[in-house]
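Lab channel / #folding
Pinned by the channel admin:
"Please post every new chain as: sequence first, then the structure tokens as a reply. Keep commentary short and put observations after the output so the thread stays searchable."

First post following the new format, from NK:
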Amino acid sequence: MDLQEKLIELSGYGVTFNVANNNFVIKIKYDDNWSVIQPEGNDIAFYRDEANNSVYYYVAPITVSIDKLFSAIDETIEYNQELELKVKLFREKMTELQELFTKENLEVLKTLEFKVKKKKDKIKKSKQTEIEEEVPEENEPVKDIEKEDTVEEEKESEIDKKISELIKK
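Reply from TO:
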């Protein structure tokens, strides 16, 4: 993707792109409640605008690939969009559970278990897991969760904390 296409793609984030003092400087505004992923390596610096906490600056020498800069931005956007979708799905499933608990008697609810069917998907040359949920027929118990560790523990706990924070709002 060329620079023009990328800037158009990110236009909803108020992105600006400059070259100053032999550095690329990208300014972007994220949603207020988003977490920002720090770029990997030492060649990209990023700063939060002190006057506006949702505005960030990514700065790198012109020897660094523009694509690497935009990859750092994409990582933050993808992380937070996925988190928002997870929170939405969580709320939908909570509503379903509330309805189930309202309709069913205690003995049926005691048999309630969860099963998650995992499907492997290769994205960006790394292993990630896409969860595909099986929906049981009414009054059919759901089986145990099959757990597969494919995401770094730090990111999992960070996502769990962020989901909890967003649910409380």
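NK: The chain has two domains: 3-77, 104-168.
TO: also worth noting, The helical segments are 3-9, 66-103, 106-110, 153-168.
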